Amino acid sequence: MSSLKTIKIDELVPGMYVNEIIEQSGAIKIKSQGRVTRLEVVDTLRKRGVKRLTIDLDKQFTPEQPAEIVAETAPVDVAILEQEETVSFSKELVRAENIHKKGKRIQKRLLEAVQNGLPFDDKIPREFSQSLVSSIHRNPDALLCLTKIREKDDYLLEHSLNVAILLANFGKFIGMSAKEVEDLAYAGFLHDMGKIRIPDEILHKPGRLTNMEMNVMKDHVYFGVTVLEEMNIAPHLIRTVSEHHERLDGYGYPNGSRGEQISRAGRMLAIADVYDALTADRCYKAGMSSQKALQILLGETPDKLDKELVQLFIKCMGIYPVGSLVKLSNDRIAMVVQQTQSPLAPVVKAFYSLRGGHFLEPKDFDLSSGTELKIERAVLAKDYKINFNAYFEKIIAT
Ligand SMILES: [Fe+2]
């Protein structure tokens, strides 16, 4: 006689053995077998959208108490782990494009809610951040490429989305746990919401802000944190958001926290925030190249930014970050689409002939595969007056 029984998530309790997940919403797939040793495991499954599952009655066991001891004594069994299958760049790109568009829509709605002092359902951005992290797990290069599509007037929407993408990739790269990566990406997605309450003439002012204007600008952290507190967002996430302008030497804001007072997540958010701000095209200035931005980040260490983390960030982004443009030795412009083992020789998509001054049928080249073709240097689309956004959209569509 079968010892399997199908139950609803609400019936799951510690001591049961999960044989299979039968019904689950959301994109994050869960390893479907394992012992449920603690209530937190049930909560995690519920949060990941598990609705129905089968349990194996033969494998039921008595969970030890208290829960902390169980966690210590059964480290292998407690794990009902995420499992993400990796997919090709082109396969993920289609999905990533939808995630990217959805992220902008959600960000827009959040900002409108904050602007009008209305509540919003935090489940929506939370679940969105999870789907973003899932895409990074399947193939990080797809969403990373999309961070390069920028609409000059959408800076606020795109900035927070991009920072979330950069952080998901960064967190994964340095080996953070799945939960930490999700939290980090979520904090990135929420980090600048307070900016919507800053007057436009200050928020979009070209050039340097006066001291008085800067003081107004600094309030965006306070506004953002206040909103998140009203929404009952978890305190550790609020802390990360509150620290994104703090600097190790104590000259950041709003609290002038220094050194160890600033959490690792806060330091990582600060790095991703500066990097995206420097590389973004704004209505009054073109973004700088990734190389230049990474150099500037390094220049901010060790006084302002965490040196070790900046070095890891540079390693994670690569010398030629995915999505950036390069000039090849055959006078073609290409976009970096994938890192390889060789940092100077990524996979690129050539799409523009400088000699002919026209677009080409896009073609991929793996520069690490022994080809003569080399990268001469990193370039910016504006240097060649290329409508990069329009063409990039076309590349995605093909
Ligand atoms: Fe900010």
UniProtKB/TrEMBL annotation:
InterPro entries: DUF3391 (IPR021812), HD/PDEase_dom (IPR003607), HD_GYP_dom (IPR037522), HDIG_dom (IPR006675). Pfam families: DUF3391, HD_5. It comes from the Bacteria. SUPFAM superfamilies: HD-domain/PDEase-like. GO terms for molecular function: phosphoric diester hydrolase activity. Residues 134-329 form the HD-GYP domain. PROSITE patterns: HD_GYP. This is HD-GYP domain-containing protein.
